[in-house]
Amino acid sequence: MKGQIHHIFYAFIIMSMALLLQSCGSSSDDRVFSISADTSSASFSNEVAQESSDSVAIKVNFVGDGILVGFPPETSPVPWLTYRAENVTDSSATIHLEVINANRLPPDSYQTKIRIATTNNDATKFAETEVDVSLLVWQLTTDTDKLNYSATLGDSELASQTISITSKQNDWLASTDANWLTLDTHSGSGDGVITVSADPTGFVESGVQSAKVILTEATSGDSKTIDVDLALDNIYFYTDKPSIALSKTMTVSSLDETITIKNVGENQYPWQAATDAPWLTLTPISATQLRIQADSDIAASNAISHAEINISAVDDMAVMAQTIQVSLFNSEQEFSNQVLEPLNVADDAMVSSPNMPYFYIAHKHNLLTYHQYSGELISTLAVSPENSLLEQLIIHPTGEYLLAKALVTTTTENGSTKETIHRYRITLADNSITEITDANIQLEPLAIIPISGRYYVITQALEFANENLQRLFWDGANAFVTSNIDIAKQANTLFALNPNAGTFNRYTMQANDFGELALTAELTHEYRPESLAEGQVIRDFTVSNDESQLYLISDNSEWLSFDGSNFTDNGLLESNENVVSLFIVKSNDDLPHYVRIDPSVADGFYVDKYDNQQMITSTTLTQGRQPSSVQLTQDGQRIILNVNSAATPELDSRVELVNIEP
User: Fold this and answer.
1) Which is it for strands 126-138 and 41-47: parallel, antiparallel or unpaired?
2) Is residue 610 packed enough to be buried (19+ CB in 10 Å), middle (13-18) or exposed (0-12)?
3) What domain of life does the UniProt record list for this protein's source (predicted)?
């Protein structure tokens, strides 16, 4: 290829010399021929692998019959330089030298010469001048084109990042154009690494701050830049209980809740709590905890009362407030265990409301709303077409809306049937339905989870998406398919069960309203319980809100503790080898409830409630059939058991409502 390029350029030189010879006198002319150029050298530089558009214009004056331009006979033509003459008169011309093909050259220094001459037709007179031409192909290849820093307004510490430079013996300089950005080194030669530190302390408003790291090749003065963004997130208050459902009946009383209040970022900001509800009393009990008490004597009787609690900063308006929705079901009735039958419900088609005494069931193409105490059918909402099956109910932690999926069956022109997936967002305050048409998640959604005071959807592949199911972040390198995840709401961490490896994967999460990525999740731990034998699996789990305790269902391990760095396998909670644990659910007050059966006794299915010292505080007999899925009501007073009779078609499917023993 190089040989071909040389031949092409050599042919071009001959043609140029012939074309540029211009006659303006006869061979008997007695003039003294001369030629001069305004420069004797031309230097070019170009970054490796980059196209070049560099050119130099050389002004030439001459006495003669024209000019010739080309490589001297003793100099081989080079494939990286071309030339042309413009504005040629009888005494002057402009010679343009242009760099070509530089993107094909390896890093190095290249030199050549260009001869500019004047002569007459019979070559009896001749004058010449030469221009030394050099090309420096420099290399300052970096491992990144951009650095993104993410922090919260008010943070003082931010992890440094690095820029790795690959260079072939080029001397270089490094600088920045912002005083909040510092480099640990400002010069080097050849390969190198620059540590870049961003200081977020000098800013008083959230948003994106932009800067550049400037790398300069010392010999040529050429430079390249690496963009730097510092995204300073808003400060949000968040709580471990974004909504509260209280209740008072003749048989149950749940009128007292304690919530933990934190804010995003390094600093803890003082907060204040307020409500307009006269039946609510708010008592701060520490810098991070608020006690909420309802007075059923003041609240309306035999009704559901609603209130809001506003958590705001005491004196810093930059902190985003948090609103907690509170409901109180106040009834003078006594509610015993109930059975709703026949009622056939898929395992993923039943959820309990976090802010109302309701639970929701997807049945055929309808969304059914039931009262958790009376068992009354409150409403029936047709969500999808009649020839569809509504399923996969996922409720927002505040109870604001539900996500649902429907399989719609249609008949084609040739008589065959086809199933298509439709997804919906159902606003529960007014039962309005919005079909989601632009989802791009790859696997099915699992839950809506809180992250740094905001809410996102997480899928079976650990994709993070917005409420329209548009993917915002996915760590594909560490992804796996799971059906079990849980959030430690106070710690703002995610735990996901890897079913194939039998490991718990812990992730720290960060959201940012202004970052190039709306949120990120970083894998910090992978842990497999020591007592879990080869081939054994973990069937279910939950994690405490402060992430200090994990409760699980497996043959040899039911309780793990975590100190922020290390896990400890504490073995089984239930020592009776006859007992089989079926499900585990966590109450709103952060206590684990195990649904179990002991086939050796006649008690049937029961629920063991544990305290935070891993002691059983109550056992509730369900007096019903084997459930296929369970839900615990928000007030922790009832467990809802879905009994799907797919395996026993002679029996009706049903839903059992069972009071939890205090």
Assistant:
1) parallel
2) buried
3) Bacteria
Indicate the burial class of 552 (C-beta count within 10 angstroms; 0-12, 13-18, 19 or more): buried
Banded pLDDT at 21 (limits 50, 70, 90): very low
Same structural domain, 229 and 245: no
Express each pLDDT in 317-329 by its tens digit: 789 999 999 999 9
Same domain flag for 325 and 297: yes
Which residues lie across from 610 on neighbouring strands?
Answer: 616
For position 479, what pLDDT does the model report? 92
Greatest CA separation found in the chain?
Answer: 131
**Which distant-in-sequence residues (6+ apart) come within 8 Å of 546 by Cβ?**
488, 490, 491
pTM: 0.85
E strands, 30-184, where?
A: 34-37, 41-47, 55-63, 68-70, 81-86, 92-99, 108-119, 126-138, 141-142, 146-152, 161-166, 171-176, 181-183
Q: What is the sign, positive or negative, of the torsion defined by CA atoms of 525, 531, 534, 538?
A: negative
Q: Under 8 Å CB-to-CB from 534, ≥6 apart: which residues?
A: none
Q: What are 74-120's pLDDT values in tens digits? A: 999 999 999 999 999 999 999 999 999 999 999 999 999 999 999 98
Same domain, 12 and 132: yes
Residue 206 and residue 178 share a domain: yes
Domain count, the chain: 3
- Is residue 164 situated within a structural domain? yes
Q: Same structural domain for residues 21 and 145?
A: no
312: domain range? 235-330
Q: Is residue 491 a part of any domain in this protein?
A: no
